[in-house]
Amino acid sequence: MSPRWTPNPDVRRGRSVVYNLHAHLVFTTKYRRGALTDPILTRCEQIMRDVCVDFGADLREFNGEDDHVHLLVHYPPTVALSKLVNSLKGVSARYLRQEHAAHLRRYLWDNHLWSPSYFAGSCGGAPLAVVKEYIENQKRPT
């Protein structure tokens, strides 16, 4: 008898596609100002999870420090990564500026939370466990 085959939960199926796409994203605050507190990071994660759901993506891991955040996103091939990034940054900036205006105004100006640039890395080369462990070990401010 052959060994029982177990499906990989990361491999997803669409109508005409089978995929396993993960991206490691890093967003920095404008001017690398240390504006992100633990409550802001917690709220940022909630917002970004909701944005991912709207795109049919899954935020697998989130962490950060006072001046940047790391995300591990599992996304479908129908999503342009740049559009997902623009939405993640835009929606989170809008909500965080509304909800934490007094705090963020001390660190940032011109209503900009995120730097216009970002890092996006494909996770195909490194095992996902290594990337996930790296993100888990990013230090949140105390």
From TrEMBL:
Q: Which positions carry the signal peptide feature in this UniProt record?
A: none
Classification via InterPro entries: Transposase_17, Transposase_17_sf
Q: Which SMART domains match?
A: Y1_Tnp (SM01321)
Identify the domain of life.
Answer: Bacteria
Instruction: Show where the Transposase IS200-like domain sits.
Output: 18-138
Which NCBIfam families does its entry note? transpos_IS200
Name of the protein this chain belongs to: IS200/IS605 family transposase
